[in-house]
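Objective 1b of the project was to move from sequence-level analysis to a structural picture of ligand recognition. The entry below was assembled by the postdoctoral researcher (A.K.) and checked by the PI before modelling. It contains the amino acid sequence of the target and the SMILES of the bound compound, magnesium ion.
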Amino acid sequence: MTHPANWIANSDRAIGGRTIVFDLDGVIADAGHRQHFLQAERSSDKDWHGFFHSCVDDPVVEQGRQLIGSISDEFCVVILTARIHETRKKTVTWLAANRVRHDWLILRGPREGAPSTEWKGHQLAQLREAGAEIELALDDDPRNTAMFRDMGLTAMYVHSGYYDDRDYDVEFR
Ligand SMILES: [Mg+2]
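Corresponding predicted holo structure:
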């Protein structure tokens, strides 16, 4: 099966069938040390380059790694992260170095600059079109868990604390 170039296989398992989707930052990768890059109020003033490229220094979230590692082989495990295309190599290397179980990694392709929630929603729709039956999706951004539920998915909110001081119009659940 052909798949988008930003879908990166980590096993022989094809996309499709029973699937669980994990977010990366705040769920498996501890991005707490780089949140300061995003302190500016306006998105255009935030240091996105500094934020994304320091991902190599993330400690692993041990509970997240154990949780994703505990998923049965019956499920296709997809890591869906809004990290930018330029971090592809670093992210692949980090996941291997930390032995994070997954079948597929999906991050942004070149020039895919849509807001995180919109971009992730589009990827999930594409996963469904490719035959994925998404039984659960986990994320630490309450805008994303709200979007998952709007798509009819079962969502699990993981509390990283990264979004606590942001003024969002959705509940943290
Ligand atoms: Mg996250």
